[in-house]
Design brief:
The structure is a homodimer of 462-residue chains. Chain A has helices spanning 3-9, 14-24, 32-51, 56-68, 86-97, 114-128, 132-160, 163-179, 184-195, 211-231, 247-251, 285-297, 314-320, 329-332, 336-346, 351-357, 361-367, 376-381, 417-431, 436-447; strands spanning 75-77, 82-84, 105-106, 273-274, 305-312, 370-374, 388-394, 399-404. Chain A has 462 residues and is α+β, with helices and mostly antiparallel strands. Chain A starts with a helix and ends in a 15-residue tail after the last helix.
Chain lengths: 462, 462
């Protein structure tokens, strides 16, 4: 039992216990690999934040922020290198982070932490002149809180609510509150104010409406608001998560308060977070990884391959099966054949590859030679494990089988720093937020964020 | 059937039908008494907005708005006569409107419309240079939408959620969207964005925490945000209220979509809204009104009265019974004896009376001569009707009975314009937001708001 297990066992509310952890934990006691992982997730997030540039709903939110906010300020909006107050920087950066679908995800909580945690943490750190270490500690606080709130709210919540919107407000409050130096009691007041603003409904999916980036924008902004208010003495409900008229009472039927305080201080849930590698539907990722592995190991070129069979779970067939001849970049991301074609042609299926070559002749030709087959082993393991299995038949008539047991980006098959850099540079180039030369030069500064005495703007030109 | 009944019956979604009404209805077709009622509610609201000045949670929200927002702008924050952007003006004015508990209420929806509608409408009207007529039309749109959303969400919703927070976001979106000239489709997108931000949990009551003004602040600000985003092309769910993953699916178990479109264009629910007259707990109001009636009709002075028996419903005994000797102004508002003592001493039980004389010797003495008795008729009629019945025994030994069938402020016993003025002037004086001379001078301008060609600041000094 950690000190927090003991505290909870002794009758402190779970909200209060989680708040105390977020306020008090000592970064020096956090294992070095967790801190390094936080740096990885931060650099990966910069790519997602830049990727939102030029996307209509994000630009609409950014224009709203500009019209309602101050003309200048200590904080940075990444897509346009603008300066504003913490509230609007958090709002705009969170909107842009969640629109390219390249931001990280925690599987068990079905929660996208980076899109809400880093925008809030960066804004408050830039406003308060925090050190890089304080920024990393705040980010860890945000992940640990948000993931546990998502796990607590459970599957019943996720049926109707976008957990990244609801749990995200707590994650942002924790990150912002940590940087503002909130006491445990103040942090719990911030949770109370965050929870009583928590929102985000899935109904928009039915219309393909623009709500998704609004959810992250408001989660980050509302959590940040809650933290500043708490710093200035504003009180909130002390059992906002587990109370009789709290968040779970209103929005969940299977909430388990023990998940809120699960191994606080010994389990770092941030390490369970997955990176998104390919820019396609997640159901294509296991087969894409297996194909890439086979081609690399067997030194196969695109022209060597006569056909590919992808052995998949039923969900992949349900979602990807209808897409035979994709008509748009977005639809191509739901085409197994296109994704594997891009892997075969380029070794990558990123934003740029989809945008530039999803319907190129060689990719379209390859697409027609890909088949999906339901596989009992793969289907049985899903969704706990996403196994990738492919069978290649070469032009020479040779059969090559390959498998990966965890898709690229999951904790057991994580991205290297080189791969994260390549992803981030590609996303920035794709959206025209920054060219590769600038991003390449920026990278050492991003990796070394933990060493800064005082956080300034990330991108050079103000 | 109105045109909107027909539209709904023909398969348009209820959200879309309600949005079309808010966008399209013709102010010239609204009965004159409804427009006059809207003016009454507006002037009454100014009092509540000014009453929040100096209250800690309101001032904390105002300071946050100042630190995050622009240094100037076209919109007015009433408590400090500051200027800012529409977002922050709506936020601060809505926070201040709901903290003195003097703002209006719609009984059937358990929704406080003024606190969320007028702040959003005033901010957008001042920013856009709207006319007074457009402002009144927008306010009516806000009331009609918010009340119907509150009725739709029902009692199951109100058990956990503060309807003024959740329905309030729609009310503010309707008011703001009407002033921004949203088309019916855009208005429904605004509803989608408002609903996916809608929040507000009762859990704070358990701690007596500061969330209540935060709920109105965020409802007004979020609704306004949704309207501006919709104007700029941002889309939202088209069935956010009734959809399978919409607001009712997530937050209600007794929602009835027919309530959303109930007699749109023929029933003006704004006319069903009650004014709050006395500054005490609502459970004291019926008896206070009956006492005042008896004293006026019988020309009784405080010194003439030996004892008062208040015949009440059980809820009044439950809530007021424990308060024997109030120790604070706030607690005195839950004391039947104190409330009746102030009525007897001063003919009023307003903010100033409570603040200045709740424990004065003559009031405390009167308090000890007040008894509550459960009355079968009063209890049976509650909560549909709040009957006031008192029996006075005079020093001379005479018995005087009095009753009122609707408490002062309810639609059947509404406030005169003189009474509204006195209330507003009293609230402004109480909070030191404006002195009686200034308020008296201001009154004709407030009553004539519908005649303005272009809305400017309400209070003279900028």
């Amino acid at each position: 039992m950690t000190a927090y297990d003991t505290r909870a066992a002794n009758g402190a509310g779970e909200s209060a216990t989680l708040a105390a952890f977020a306020s008090e934990f000592d970064l020096d006691a956090v294992p070095a690999d967790i801190v390094a992982r936080t740096e990885d997730l931060f650099v990966d997030w910069v790519g997602s934040a830049l990727a939102g540039k030029g996307v209509a709903p994000v630009e609409t939110i950014a224009a709203f922020a500009k019209s309602m906010g101050p003309a200048d300020g200590p904080c940075e909006t990444l897509i346009d290198r603008g300066r504003t107050s913490p509230l609007f920087a958090a709002m705009v950066n969170a909107a842009s982070s969640h629109v390219a679908e390249q931001d990280d995800v925690h599987n068990a909580s079905v929660f996208h932490p980076a899109a809400v945690v880093f925008p809030a943490a960066l804004a408050v750190a830039q406003a308060s002149g925090a050190s890089g270490k304080e920024f990393l500690a705040a980010s860890i606080a945000g992940y640990e809180v948000g993931i546990r709130v998502g796990e607590f709210l459970g599957r019943s919540h996720y049926k109707t609510f976008h957990t990244t919107g609801t749990a995200g407000a707590f994650a942002a409050a924790a990150a912002a509150g940590r940087l503002l130096g909130l006491t445990p009691a103040q942090m719990n007041h911030a949770f109370g104010s965050a929870g009583t603003q928590a929102a985000g409904l899935w109904e928009f999916l039915r219309d393909g409406a623009d709500s998704k980036p609004l959810h992250t924008a408001k989660a980050a902004a509302n959590g940040l608001t809650a933290a500043y208010l708490a710093r200035d003495g504003f009180t909130g409900a002390t059992r906002i998560l587990e109370g009789a008229q709290g968040l779970a009472a209103g929005m969940s039927s299977d909430a388990d308060p023990r998940r809120l305080v699960d191994r606080l201080g010994s389990r770092f849930a941030i390490a369970e977070t997955s990176f998104k590698f390919h820019a396609s539907c997640r159901h294509t990722h296991p087969a894409a990884d297996a194909l890439l592995k086979a081609m690399t190991e067997q030194k196969l070129a695109m022209a060597d391959i006569a056909s590919v069979t992808a052995f998949v779970h039923q969900g992949a067939i349900d979602v990807l099966g209808p897409v035979v001849t994709p008509k748009s970049v977005h639809q191509a991301k739901f085409s197994m054949g296109t994704t594997l074609g891009l892997i075969a042609a380029h070794g990558r299926a990123g934003m740029t590859e989809f945008d530039e070559m999803f319907d190129r002749a060689d990719v379209a030709d390859f697409r027609a030679r890909v088949t999906m087959v339901l596989d009992p082993e793969v289907d049985g393991a899903y969704p706990a494990r996403w196994i990738g299995k492919v069978r290649i038949v070469t032009r020479e008539g040779r059969t090559v089988d390959a498998r990966v047991d965890e898709p690229k980006g999951d904790p057991g098959n994580t991205l290297s720093r080189d791969e994260i850099e390549a992803k981030v540079i590609g996303l920035a180039r794709f959206s025209n937020a920054a060219d590769p030369a600038e991003m390449t030069k920026l990278m050492p500064r991003l990796w070394a964020i933990g060493e800064l005495n005082r956080l300034g703007p990330l991108l050079a030109a103000g």
